[in-house]
Design a protein that fits this description.
single chain; 575 residues; mainly beta; Tachylectin-2, Chain A; Jelly Rolls; Immunoglobulin-like; 3 domains; 8-stranded antiparallel beta sheet; globular
């Protein structure tokens, strides 16, 4: 017995040392987060019952961050980009899509989509009190973006269409933000050259894409006009960018496009968002992510490190973008990853449940797809879901994603929250409490919990206490940690075949590798600019249909399992 206790003490010390070496005490903050962003996503007001938040804008104002999203019943503020508090207001058209906001001096200006939309202003957004600056903008505006240039001029960009281009017009700050001149047509979709603008989860469709969600940044004298395509319901939803030396153009397509893409993993999509600078001078990109199961606009929010490289190329780091990430509390290295290095331990592991609906089995909660979910047959306290990790692992963090099967909820009320407990075990027989939220009264449908100290576990069980409506259902019971066994073999050989008749397409193949959870394909227009990524499970080949015809590409492939990542050292080039 003494030997066994000494073994567990030694193991625990190794775990704590591992956390120290993996970033808890380096230049990153101890705070971590996991996409989708942890907010109380509101149930929509119309049928079918589902949650939504999308089309986000984040601004930094008077030492706090404010986030405006579609269909949230208000807007949000935060000190640290992790803990968000809702502000409810009757002054703004909060049921309109794609709100935008901009800081000008000591005030915030706001506008949302609509026919003759008003423009609002406040000096205190936390109060929820706004005044009207322009009661009816003379143009119909969808997906607006207010951009305040550092030369003191204000511009409005807008557009959301599968036929029309994006538009821009200057606004008169001395005359209630009335337009100056007439709208300027900017650019339209170009699917013949930009494969990523084609519709479909994997850009396989020929229907016209939606060009939408413009956002403007100015960096080192260059204007970066960002836009979303091909459609919010697709895993391929991404943001691209054109650049110019003038806010009204002409604009030039950036060769490294899209600059924000997340096409694989648990939750996909990284389009229609905004790029902003935090209090430390770090850039972030916040974007829309897709579920689109109960409704096409069933969507969530993701936040990713972003930046501009030495050549002025804008990029977003979405690799490992739905695994735990560090939140920076100081200036970071521009190209440094925020990934904690904590690996997924629960992928396709053996699962058990108190009950299950035939079409919604327990395995769905461990398949790394937010679009599939497990549902128990009832909402009773007796319902539970458990997983056997197959071995003992140090567990650092857990994310529980509730699916609310057959919920009949609309809007917000004080009874919308989940209550549950999580237990852990080494043998599947003796259980100890890990997380007790049996008295929780805060709504968090994507609940990420970083443990104060890691625990060693093989089995974990999620026990229902209360659900706000429908059945007890989970789309992802995700367990993160780090094993101490060998990493997988590195991918040192792979082949790339670019379609000579359609350079938007390419196939990548590599050898099967044992003891591997999955692969991360890294690619870009330069061997030092592999800014796009695709996470792949259960396959040793993939077809990309999102390339730009006028760009050459470089590729590398990382392999990973519960014990870490083996980076691919081989970089291959295709023309």
């Amino acid at each position: 017995m003494l030997v066994k206790r000494l073994y567990f003490l030694f193991s625990f010390l190794l775990i704590v040392l591992s956390m120290h070496l993996n970033g808890s005490s380096n230049n990153k903050s101890n705070k971590t987060y996991c996409n989708p962003v942890g907010i109380s996503y509101r149930f929509c007001l119309d049928k079918p019952s589902r949650r939504e938040a999308a089309d986000p804008t984040i601004i930094f104002f008077k030492d706090e961050y404010y986030m405006f999203t579609s269909k949230s019943g208000g807007y949000w503020y935060s000190k640290d980009l992790i803990d968000w508090k809702l502000i409810v207001t009757d002054d703004l058209p909060i049921e309109e899509y794609a709100p935008t906001a901009v800081v000008i001096g000591d005030s915030v200006y706001f506008m949302a989509s609509g026919e003759k939309s008003p423009i609002f202003k406040t000096d205190d957004p936390k109060s929820g009190k706004w005044e009207i600056v322009n009661p009816a903008f003379p143009y119909s505006v969808t997906d607006p973006d207010l951009f305040y240039d550092d030369n003191g001029r204000l511009y409005l960009y807008w557009g959301c269409s599968n036929k029309e281009p994006l538009y821009c017009i200057e606004l008169d700050l001395q005359n209630n933000l009335e337009p100056i001149g007439i709208p300027v047509k900017l650019f339209s979709a170009n699917t013949k050259e930009h494969g990523w603008e084609r519709q479909g989860d994997f850009n396989q469709l020929t229907t016209n894409p939606w060009l939408e969600g413009p956002w403007m940044n100015k960096h080192n004298g260059i204007y970066y006009l960002q836009y979303a395509a091909p459609g919010t319901e697709f895993k391929s939803y991404a943001d691209g960018v054109y650049t110019s030396k003038h806010p009204l153009g002409p604009f030039e397509y950036q060769k490294s496009n899209p600059f924000s893409l997340k096409q694989g993993g648990f939750i996909c999509g990284a389009g229609h968002g905004n790029t902003f600078e935090d209090r430390y001078g770090n850039f972030w990109h916040i974007a829309t992510q897709t579920i689109s199961v109960k409704h096409i606009f069933e969507r969530r929010i993701g936040i990713f490190p972003a930046g501009f490289d030495d050549d002025g190329v804008i990029y977003t780091q979405t690799a490992w973008g739905d695994y735990p990430q560090y939140m920076y509390d100081k200036k970071r290295n521009q190209l440094e990853s925020s990934f904690t290095g904590w690996m997924l331990l629960s992928y396709k592991k053996t699962s058990y449940a108190s009950s299950e609906i035939d079409s919604l089995p327990a395995a769905n909660a461990f398949d790394e797809d937010i679009r599939t979910y497990w549902s128990a047959k009832t909402d009773e306290k007796s319902e539970w879901l458990s997983v056997d990790l197959g071995d003992r692992f140090p567990v650092y963090a857990i994310q529980i994603n509730f699916a609310e099967h057959e919920a009949n909820i609309y809007g917000r009320n004080e009874k919308i929250f989940h209550q549950y407990t999580v237990e852990y075990s080494l043998d599947g027989t003796t259980w100890d409490m890990l997380i007790d939220k049996s008295e929780n009264n805060f709504d968090m449908p994507h609940d990420y919990i970083r443990l104060e100290l890691p625990v060693e576990a093989r089995y974990l069980k999620l026990n229902n206490v209360y659900v706000p409506g429908g059945k007890f259902a989970v789309s992802g019971f995700r367990i993160f940690g780090k094993g101490d066994k060998p990493k997988p073999e590195a991918v040192d050989e792979f082949e790339i075949f670019r379609d000579s008749s359609d350079k938007r397409n390419a196939m990548i193949k590599w050898k099967k590798i044992d003891n591997t959870t999955g692969f991360m394909i890294n690619y870009g227009i330069d061997e030092n600019k592999l800014y796009n990524h695709l996470m792949v499970y259960d396959s040793n080949s993939v077809i990309l249909k999102n390339l730009n015809t006028n760009s050459n590409y470089y590729f590398s492939i990382d392999s990973f399992n519960e014990n870490g990542i083996s980076e691919g050292k081989v970089i291959k080039h295709i023309q």
